[in-house]
Write a structure and sequence with these properties.
By secondary structure, the protein is of the alpha+beta class. The chain has 13 helices and 4 strands. It folds into 2 domains: about 10-100, Conserved hypothetical protein from pyrococcus furiosus pfu- 392566-001, ParB domain (Alpha-Beta Complex), CATH 3.90.1530; about 115-320, no CATH class. The chain is elongated.
Length: about 325
C-alpha cells in the first residue's frame, strides 16, 4: 500500500502535462473555444444558455469547480453552454480551465445533464445514437438473464465492448439508416434480433429454405414482425410464419395489458430471439412462441465482423483479443 507521506515523483504522473488554472475568458477567447468544440458534442439546450446569459448580464455568474476542458489537440470537451453564454452576453468571465487533458473525460464531466452510454461512446469519438446503442446491447445480451440488454450493458466500463460491437457490424446500422428502420416505428428488440440474423447469415454460407440474401431476409423479418405483413416480398406461411406468430404475440400482450403491453421486457426478448432464429432458417412454430432461455444464435461477440472497414481497437494486443471479446 502506498504511503501518502512519501514524496511522489510528479514526472512519472500520467497527468504531468495537464495544466490547471483560473483564466479570464473574453468573448474573443470564447469564439476560439467554440470553433474548437467537439464535433460530436450534444446539441445546446437553448434555455440553459439563456439562464447562464442572464446570470452574466446581471453580474451573478460565479466561478465554478466544473472546468472548461481542452484536450491535447486543442478540442474543447466541456463547458459549451457557458462558453456560448459568454459569446451571447458579450461579457468575459473567470473560469477554472484544464488544458492538455489526454484521457476521455466525457463520462465524468457535464454533470448538469447525465450522459447515457451512447453519449459517452459518441464523446469518445464514435458517433452512435441512443437507439443504435440500445439495438447493439439487446443483440449482445444474455437471454438467460431476467433483464434486457440496455440494463445488462449500462456501466462506463462496458462502453468499450459495446462500441467495438457497433463498429464490427456498422454495415448493418448503415443499412437500417438507409432504409429508415431506425425510426421509432420499429422496436429495438426486433432490430436487435435482426442484427443476430444479419451477423449469422453473413458469417455462414448456409443454404436456407427461403433462398433469400441477408438484406432481403432482414427486411422480410422486420416488416412482418412489426406490422404482420410484408410490403416488398410475397408471404409464405410455411417459411415466414415465425415472424407472423411473433407479431400476434405482440398484439396479444398489448390487448391483454392496455397501457402496459410494451414489447420491452425479458420474456419479449426471449420470444423474439426464438422467432428470429426460426425465421432465419425458414422454420415455423408448432404451437406457441416459447420464451427460450438458451440462445440458438452464436454469441455476437464471437462472430466475425461484417463491416469491411472494421479495425481492431487501438491498445488491444492480438494475444489479449479473446479476453477483450469474451471477458467481463
Amino acid at each position: 500500500m502506498n504511503d501518502p507521506t512519501l514524496p511522489i515523483d510528479f514526472d512519472s504522473s500520467p497527468y504531468k502535462d495537464v495544466k490547471v488554472g483560473i483564466e479570464f475568458i473574453t468573448p474573443a477567447d470564447a469564439a476560439e473555444l467554440k470553433a474548437s468544440n467537439y464535433k460530436f458534442n450534444r446539441e445546446l439546450i437553448k434555455q440553459n444558455v439563456n439562464d447562464l446569459k442572464k446570470m452574466m448580464l446581471d453580474g451573478e455568474f460565479l466561478l465554478s469547480s466544473d472546468a472548461v476542458v481542452v484536450d491535447t489537440s486543442g478540442t474543447m470537451k466541456n463547458a459549451q453552454h457557458r462558453i456560448e453564454a459568454v459569446l451571447e452576453s458579450g461579457i468575459g468571465q473567470w473560469f477554472l480551465v484544464m488544458r492538455n487533458v489526454s484521457h476521455d473525460i466525457g463520462a465524468i464531466t457535464d454533470t448538469g445533464r447525465s450522459r447515457k452510454m451512447a453519449d459517452r461512446i459518441t464523446f469518445s469519438g464514435t458517433k452512435i445514437s441512443r437507439r443504435e446503442c440500445s439495438i447493439v446491447r439487446n443483440a449482445m445480451c444474455d437471454i438467460q438473464s431476467p433483464t434486457i440488454g440496455v440494463m445488462q450493458f449500462s456501466k462506463p466500463w462496458q462502453d468499450a465492448k459495446v462500441k467495438d460491437t457497433f463498429l464490427r457490424f456498422q454495415d448493418y446500422f448503415n443499412f437500417l439508416n438507409t432504409r429508415k428502420y431506425l425510426s421509432t416505428m420499429y422496436s429495438p428488440i426486433l432490430l436487435g434480433a435482426g442484427l443476430k440474423i444479419w451477423a449469422h447469415m453473413k458469417n455462414n454460407n448456409d443454404t436456407y429454405l427461403h433462398d433469400m440474401c441477408v438484406e432481403d431476409r432482414f427486411v422480410h423479418w422486420i416488416e412482418i414482425s412489426s406490422f404482420g405483413q410484408p410490403s416488398t416480398f410475397m408471404y409464405n406461411p410455411s417459411i415466414d410464419g415465425a415472424a407472423a406468430r411473433l407479431y400476434h404475440e405482440k398484439r396479444k400482450k398489448r390487448d391483454d395489458n392496455p397501457g402496459a403491453g410494451f414489447w420491452n421486457d425479458s420474456p419479449a426478448l426471449r420470444k423474439t430471439v426464438h422467432a428470429a432464429h426460426k425465421f432465419m432458417n425458414g422454420e415455423n412454430f408448432g404451437r406457441n412462441v416459447v420464451a427460450i432461455t438458451v440462445d440458438p444464435f452464436k454469441l455476437l461477440r464471437k462472430m466475425q465482423p461484417t463491416n469491411p472497414k472494421y479495425a481492431l481497437p487501438e491498445g488491444i494486443a492480438y494475444s489479449k483479443l479473446n479476453d477483450f471479446i469474451l471477458g467481463e
